[in-house]
């Protein structure tokens, strides 16, 4: 199952950015440039001891006046509740415990989410240690003194965070073979409409899986007697008036939903085409090795002749050229056109994601490929491919043993990938290669 998700929340200036940078180091994956705002992190893939997790920053543009601080904090907390396994609630020992902290603590307590309470700016235990006790009043567990700026107490904090992962992943790891699908895309492309149409018009059964974790907001849709789990669809319905907040939310949602999915359906508005944000979101699915279906929605609004679909297709493929394996489908959530074909595509992509090729057959294909096109050489030395094997599924990962890694050119890997795809398809899923040397 997917990596655990950790969210940091707290009032402005308590030190969230500082902590984020200390934990994430250089591994920050998506930053957003908004004019007039500093480069803004959204999430980072992090690691503590042997634990991998995704850290998300629910913040964004932070308000200055106190009356909107609380509503902003509530919004951040809700995003964290919807998306995270563990929430780090950060407070500031120098500002002390304030009313907004207590209110948000109430909200977190009611959600039943796992919360780790960090009290920041405890730069000296002698000086500030006693002030930390006050934060017990929040009623969300033991306050942990830290100093993000001086990197004090960070190890203990991360130990506490990671100690909750087992529980979270255990509850998700119950044997579950149902396809898991993340519907992703920027706001207003029609994600909720697609789900609602799938729920509403046919013989589908909707049920919310009971549970205390994020599973609670998954939707199960039955099609041809088979169950499909659509992840985190409740989150889609979250609306905000601020464009930047909406964008941030759709990226956070994409990261956390894709993490748990087998296949992602990237929804694009047919009239608008692919935007930069669409490409970023597609990149999330690609980086995480998930299957990708691009659903071009609102197809009912396009004036068409017999060439229109192919024109759209080649345009989309050109812009999304970093996911050449993606499957495309043109749909309308309003008319329902081709909506049920989605299930066939999902079945195919899910099967390909888990497809395992026998070593013998694989090596035959690679040998034929090598005969058809000689491997690259450099300074009189030619690449030799000894042996290949599929080391993993989800995504399919191939290990290729060669005489000299330096000689394996990117374009030759691409050539081998194409040959493997010609032979076995793998439509809709990324393929990974690991090149190993053997003398
Ligand atoms: P955010 O608004 O919650 O993201 O807070 P920042 O990370 O931007 O920090 C706000 C201010 O607090 C900055 O001036 C930081 O340098 C300062 N700060 C952060 N952590 C500490 C700390 O551990 N001790 C002290 N004394 N200052 C800190
Ligand atoms: P989301 O933010 O991605 O979940 O988008 P919504 O499902 O809320 O849809 C945004 C708007 O687009 C709504 O006004 C929908 O009625 C409209 N919409 C969604 N799908 C279609 C479609 O296939 N055709 C048309 N004409 N409108 C659509």
TrEMBL record:
GO BP terms in the entry: ribosome biogenesis
Q: Which Pfam families match?
A: KH_dom-like, MMR_HSR1
Q: Does the keyword Repeat apply?
A: yes
Question: Where does the EngA-type G domain lie?
Answer: 4-169, 179-354
Q: Name one GO molecular function term.
A: GTP binding
Which amino acids does the record list as binding GTP 1?
10-17, 57-61, 120-123
The entry marks the following residues as binding GTP 2, namely 185-192, 232-236, 297-300
**Mitochondrion as UniProt keyword:** no
Keywords annotated in UniProt: GTP-binding, Nucleotide-binding, Repeat, Ribosome biogenesis
Q: Which InterPro entries match?
A: AAA+_ATPase, G_ENGA, GTP-bd, GTPase_Der, KH_dom-like, KH_dom-like_a/b, P-loop_NTPase, Small_GTP-bd
Q: How does it assemble?
A: Associates with the 50S ribosomal subunit.
The protein's role, per its UniProt record: GTPase that plays an essential role in the late steps of ribosome biogenesis.
Q: Tell me the protein family, please.
A: Belongs to the TRAFAC class TrmE-Era-EngA-EngB-Septin-like GTPase superfamily. EngA (Der) GTPase family.
What protein is this chain from? GTPase Der
Native source organism of the sequence: Johnsonella ignava ATCC 51276
Q: What is the lineage of its organism?
A: Bacteria, Bacillati, Bacillota, Clostridia, Lachnospirales
């Amino acid at each position: 199952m997917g990596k655990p998700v950790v969210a940091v929340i707290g009032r402005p200036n308590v030190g969230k950015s500082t902590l984020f940078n200390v934990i994430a180091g250089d591994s920050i994956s998506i930053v957003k440039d908004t004019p007039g705002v500093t480069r803004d992190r959204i999430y980072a893939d992090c690691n503590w001891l042997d634990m991998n997790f995704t850290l998300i920053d629910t913040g964004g543009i932070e308000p200055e006046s106190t009356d909107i601080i609380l509503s902003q904090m509530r919004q951040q907390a809700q995003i964290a509740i919807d998306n995270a396994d563990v929430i780090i609630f950060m407070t500031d020992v120098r500002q002390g415990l304030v009313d907004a902290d207590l209110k948000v603590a109430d909200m977190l307590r009611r959600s039943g989410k796992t919360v780790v309470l960090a009290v920041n700016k405890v730069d000296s235990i002698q000086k500030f240690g006693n002030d930390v006790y006050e934060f017990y009043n929040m009623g969300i567990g033991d306050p942990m003194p830290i100093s993000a700026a001086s990197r004090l107490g960070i190890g203990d904090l991360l130990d506490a965070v990671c100690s909750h992962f087992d529980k979270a992943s255990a509850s998700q790891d119950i044997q579950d073979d149902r396809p898991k699908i993340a519907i992703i895309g920027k706001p207003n492309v029609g994600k909720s409409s697609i789900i609602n149409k799938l729920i509403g018009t046919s013989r589908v059964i909707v049920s919310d899986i009971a549970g205390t974790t994020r599973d609670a907001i998954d939707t199960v849709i039955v099609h041809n007697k088979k169950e499909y789990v659509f992840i985190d669809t409740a989150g889609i319905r979250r609306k905000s008036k601020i464009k930047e907040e909406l964008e941030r939310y759709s990226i956070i949602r994409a990261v956390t939903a894709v993490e748990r999915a087998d296949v992602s359906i990237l929804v694009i508005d047919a009239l608008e085409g692919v935007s930069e944000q669409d490409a970023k979101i597609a990149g999330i699915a690609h980086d995480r090795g998930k299957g990708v279906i691009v659903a071009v929605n609102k197809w009912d609004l396009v004036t068409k002749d017999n060439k229109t679909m192919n024109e759209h297709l080649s345009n989309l493929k050109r812009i999304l050229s970093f996911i050449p394996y993606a499957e495309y489908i043109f749909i309308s959530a309003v008319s329902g056109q081709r909506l049920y074909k989605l299930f066939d595509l999902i079945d195919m992509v899910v099967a390909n994601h888990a497809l395992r090729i026998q070593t013998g057959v694989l090596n035959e294909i690679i040998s034929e490929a090598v005969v058809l096109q000689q491997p690259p050489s450099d300074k009189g030395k030619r690449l030799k491919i000894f042996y290949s094997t599929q080391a993993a599924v989800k995504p399919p990962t191939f290990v290729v043993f060669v005489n000299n890694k330096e000689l394996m050119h990117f374009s030759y890997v691409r050539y081998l990938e194409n040959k493997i795809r010609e032979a076995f398809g793998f439509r809709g899923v990324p393929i990974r290669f690991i090149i190993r040397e053997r003398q």
